[in-house]
């Protein structure tokens, strides 16, 4: 049973550039959430996708956008990168209803220089 | 963004000792989750708690959902070197429109001395 997979694992970008991160959810899961984890901090919720729509959004600017595809995989896009966007970006998948467990991928380490 | 109050921030223990960490919030949560994260990896789910007062075990790990729904604790018995890592609590709260947002603590870094 494949768990949550993310790509790439590491990425280095220059300020002002744009980046796209990808996530495939755990088999049987159709809800994908994205989190940003700064060094020494817990993950912070960015947004959640279900049925190809953004269902909930955390306190992140519009530079952060996403997409969910019919096969439930998802992308996170960040435009106009800032140095402060450097972090581990985590994707979590879950079932859509009820009190549910979220399973995380290994993350994408983004470094903005 | 909001984070749960997790303590202690770090701890050093001898192999074989028991460990206890806790998490508190000013808000009520519907579910409490405990994760372990190794360096460079994503969090791995250890235990999920769904009802106030619930006590759940997973091997040497035991966690409880506080009766006020604003706190939770995690105990690890007879620690071993592979318990090293960062432990995060996370609260799950219904946030409207049928979605569920996880709020995390800052983590407890556990070091085990052989």
Properties at a glance:
heterodimer, A: 113 residues, mainly beta, 7-stranded mixed sheet, 4-stranded antiparallel sheet, 0% helix, globular, B: 114 residues, 6-stranded mixed sheet, 5-stranded antiparallel sheet, 55% strand
Low-confidence stretches of chain A: none
The major sheet of chain B is characterized as: 6 strands, mixed
Radius of gyration of CA atoms of chain A, rounded to a whole number: 13 Å
Q: Give the integer mean of the pLDDT values of chain A.
A: 93
Question: How far apart are the first and last residues' alpha carbons of chain A, in Å?
Answer: 37 Å
Largest interface: A-B, 31 and 32 residues
Shape of chain A: globular
Order of helices and strands of chain B: EEEEEEEEEEE
Radius of gyration of chain B: 14 Å
Count of DSSP H/I helices of chain B? 0
Structural class of chain A: mainly beta
Count of extended strands of chain A: 11
What is the helix fraction of residues of chain A, given as a range?
Answer: under 10%
- Total count of strands of chain B: 11
State the assembly state of the protein chains: heterodimer
The biggest sheet of chain A amounts to: 7 strands, mixed
The residue fraction in helices of chain B comes out at under 10%
Query: Which class do the helix and strand fractions of chain B yield?
Result: mainly beta
Distance between the termini of chain B: 37 Å
Mean pLDDT of chain B: 92
Strand content of chain B: over 45%
Explain this structure.
The complex is a heterodimer of chains A (113) and B (114). Chain A has 113 residues and is mainly beta. Chain A has strands at 5-7, 10-13, 19-24, 31-37, 44-50, 53-57, 64-68, 74-78, 87-94, 103-104, 108-112. In chain A, the strands form two sheets. In chain A, strands 2, 4, 5, 6, 9, 10 and 11 form a seven-stranded mixed beta sheet that branches. In chain A, strands 1-3-8-7 form a four-stranded antiparallel beta sheet, with no helix packed on it. In chain B, the strands form two sheets. In chain B, strands 2, 4, 5, 9, 10 and 11 form a six-stranded mixed beta sheet that branches. Classes of the chains: A mainly beta (113), B mainly beta (114).
